[in-house]
Amino acid sequence: MAFDIEMIKKVYANFGPRVEAARKLVGRPLTLSEKILYAHLWDGNTNTAYTRGTDYVDFAPDRVAMQDATAQMALLQFMQAGRPKVAVPSTVHCDHLITAKNGAEIDLPAANTESKEVFDFLASVSNKYGIGFWKPGAGIIHQVVLENYAFPGGMMIGTDSHTVNAGGLGMVAIGVGGADACDVMAGLPWELKFPKLIGIKLTGKLSGWVSAKDVILKVAGILTVKGGTGAIVEYFGEGATSMSCTGKGTICNMGAEIGATTSTFGYDESMERYLRATGRAEVADAANAIKEHLTGDAEVYAEPEKYFDQLIEINLSELEPYLNGPFTPDLATPISKMKEVAAANGWPMKIDVGLIGSCTNSSYEDISRAISIAKQVSEKGLTSKSEYCINPGSEQIRYTIARDGFLDVFKSIGAKVFTNACGPCIGMWDRVGADKQEKNTIVHSFNRNFAKRADGNPNTFAFVGSPELVTALAIAGDLSFNPLTDTLTNDKGEQVKLDAPTGFELPTKGFAVEDAGYQQPAEDGSKVEVIVSPTSHRLQLLDPFTPWEGTDLKGLKLLIKAKGKCTTDHISMAGPWLKFRGHLDNISNNMLIGAVNYFNDKTDSVKNELTGEYGPVPATQRAYKAAGLGSIVIGDENYGEGSSREHAAMEPRHLGVRAVLVKSFARIHETNLKKQGMLGLTFVNKEDYDKILEDDTIDIIGLTTFTPNVPLTLVLNHADGTKEEISVNHSYNDQQIEWFKAGGALNIIRREAAAKKA
């Protein structure tokens, strides 16, 4: 079934003319990314040639996707927007609030009971406002989107950083905060700084143990966690066209780990095959009719150095499997070097658990390649040494692999099959023994491996690899095992070597499913009532944030000076805190509890300037708020890296933090701060980070003349009576300054909606 086919046909009808106009305007051949961007300009006109990395541009995305953890806040905001129905096709996917522990048969009913209030809220809001609703157990948002909604040349935003997965089907799909989603659902333009372009030319062909996952693991090692910031990564070349559509999705998915705005591939035969296999022949036919526009111009790929801001070339024929980690997804180690690198670093060699699946690697191809390794356990007389767990990406995948006997093979090696949901990947893993915080190693085919990410244990060393490599390592139980060269001892005492993985791009019998888990919204939702109990601890209706008072901000207390890596996991943890994603006050009790305090190297321990005592970050900030005092947060490089969760911006806003000053921001988090009426600032001189002392009281000067491209001044009032002034930059344009003055972008939407009703 092809969802929203009329919308797709409309996009394609305009696509060619807009691309031709854009090409004429800029006076040169266009990359695929540029074609999609220019084809989705808000006003539909291409009368301006935009400057990459400089110009803010208004776009008109084709659709919005939300997962249940972030959808709550997005839809609570949308309910205040005064609109009767979403303006673009939108969906909600229940995948984050399901704890993985005993297996799907037990875990899914438990989640439906524990989070019934939230699921009912999301279902009713979706029904009321014309939003497609995917029930708990239907699958992980990005796999479900790839199977049902993604289409070549489209533009989508989603309230999850791995929305970029849809680039595997030739989209420009971008992770955003809920406020951005609210704007688009309300029929407003979506603003983005016109991205820079990184081209990655793939030559050769994947073979043996090497998979698409290894491409992005190598790229992460090259670009690091912030090397893609502000850029779209566009893959091309013979290596790209030789790869499966779902393999492309894996590569795009983990583009979030290099900070990229998104990643994408040109439309090709693999995408056509996937569209037809997933019941969307009509979309494939429509794409074929304009396929010359759905990839970069030939001149671009012939001389890419002329058209991209940065160019990387990878020969797939020379690539080897990688394991990335621990504690960061860009620490890339070829499997051939892992033994010596692990020994040199003292990483635990014994592998306790191998986990496959997730939004990154749960395609039929992924599972079939892992199965080809798992089968060898019985065939070669081996015993699997590690616990092994699977998170299928969707009910369609689960049903199909069950039909084809794959689940039986997995269970024969002791595998535990979790719900079709995020589970351990998002920290929803009730892992027995994790509370002991023992040092241990796990390997998984997920995307992120920050400390505490999977099981809450800071001493879990997590390594990221392909599903087939994870399976081999789980069988061996040893991080130093290299399946390309090493042997294992079987039950006869023989040395046996694992054969290289094989698999199927698509199921030979086709995909199958009985109940995909989709709920279509009511044609007329005006009579649908959405109820939020005032005593609920899971949901809380939002109150508007207070507008700017019109003066410079003086007397701000230093809440915390965060040291080193400070991701959105550090600012607003997931795991057990996911249950409070719809209740701003309750979830604010996790604000910055994972950040390391520069002054004592501790987490969740900051000095309360009112008492002189050290205490938890949220409690200290609540004390400042009760005393009518604002505060400021200081951060290091790439602050806000990771998830798109806007709670990392809303919690400080709610508790009275007025500004966040850092060496550099991750893109989504900086935007989220702006949307909520916060000040997101960067040091002009990064060395000034060292000037900020624990007992400082800080003034921000220049807000009464707040202007784009004009730095502000910070006055550091030291406890000894001395003062220092430092300059700080901002990236606010005129519209974003209005968000700040109004107390948040939503206040402007609400005001405009009220004016129209009047």
UniProtKB/TrEMBL annotation:
InterPro entries: Acnase/IPM_dHydase_lsu_aba_1/3, Acoase/IPM_deHydtase_lsu_aba, Aconitase/3IPM_dehydase_swvl, Aconitase/IPM_isomerase, Aconitase_4Fe-4S_BS, Aconitase_4Fe-4S_dom, Aconitase_dom2, Aconitase_mito-like. Residues 35-477 form the Aconitase/3-isopropylmalate dehydratase large subunit alpha/beta/alpha domain. Pfam families: Aconitase, Aconitase_C. One of its GO terms (cellular component) is cytosol. It catalyses: citrate = D-threo-isocitrate. GO terms for biological process: tricarboxylic acid cycle. Residues 558-685 form the Aconitase A/isopropylmalate dehydratase small subunit swivel domain. It comes from the Bacteria. Its EC number is 4.2.1.3. Its cofactor is [4Fe-4S] cluster. Pathway: Carbohydrate metabolism; tricarboxylic acid cycle; isocitrate from oxaloacetate: step 2/2. Keywords: Iron, Iron-sulfur, Lyase, Metal-binding, Transit peptide, Tricarboxylic acid cycle. GO terms for molecular function: 4 iron, 4 sulfur cluster binding; aconitate hydratase activity; metal ion binding. PROSITE patterns: ACONITASE_1, ACONITASE_2. This is Aconitate hydratase A. It comes from Pedobacter ginsengisoli.
